[in-house]
Amino acid sequence: MNLRNFEIIPEKLSKESFSNYGDVLEPSGDSINNKDFLKLGYANMSDNVPSERVEKFDVLDYWGQIANISQEPMRFGFLRPRKRAFEVSWLERHVKGTQTFIPLGGEKSIITVGKANENDNPEALPDLSTVKAFLLDGDKGINLHPGTWHWTPFPINSKCDFIILVRTNVKDDDLNFVDLESRLKTFIKININ
Predict the structure, then answer these.
(1) Residues 148, 165, 186, 5, CA torsion sign
(2) What residues make up the domain containing 39?
(3) Cα angle at 57 between 55 and 62, to 5 degrees?
(4) Which of 91, 101, 115, 122 has the fewest CB neighbours in a 10 Å radius?
(5) Residue 8 shares a structural domain with residue 90
(6) Which domain-ending residue is among 40, 62, 84?
(7) 81 with 172, same domain?
(8) Of the candidates 189, 171, 193, 190, which has an alpha carbon nearest to the alpha carbon of residue 181?
(9) In what order do the strands lie in the sheet with 109-114?
(10) pLDDT grade, residue 1 (50/70/90)?
């Protein structure tokens, strides 16, 4: 079987470049702090506290709404991708919910993604013209939109670890793998040089 070699070069991850595939988990817009929570009525102080103590209460900046996740029961998992050749022969998708990757340890990796398409068709194939690779620096997470085609991240060095967040039932009713070699006579090579 002659396979077509489809080559892609990893891109730098940004909100704009990744917007067709999901969300980049990083601060966005204006932050609020503990005093803002009180002023805006999002929180209540259990006791009357003098204003000079409230100043010491202000210990954080918070950015909300950096991504929306599925509204069904979700579960955390720990993912350690294996070191391997930078080649993709498979893509997968989850059309019923989001999937979130939160890196641990600051290790760099590369993730391959393709735009969601035909989410209502279980026999749909990825559109290879939309497939991209993104360099994950290890300091930002990503949240994939429902139906985004993707493959397990590739460690740049010896390993990279992630906390992932997926629908609790993803393995039972929403795990769609496509063998690119048999279905599209193609494999994807990620050129990291």
Answers:
(1) positive
(2) 32-62
(3) 110
(4) 122
(5) yes
(6) 62
(7) yes
(8) 189
(9) 11-12, 132-136, 109-114, 149-155, 90-93, 176-179
(10) low
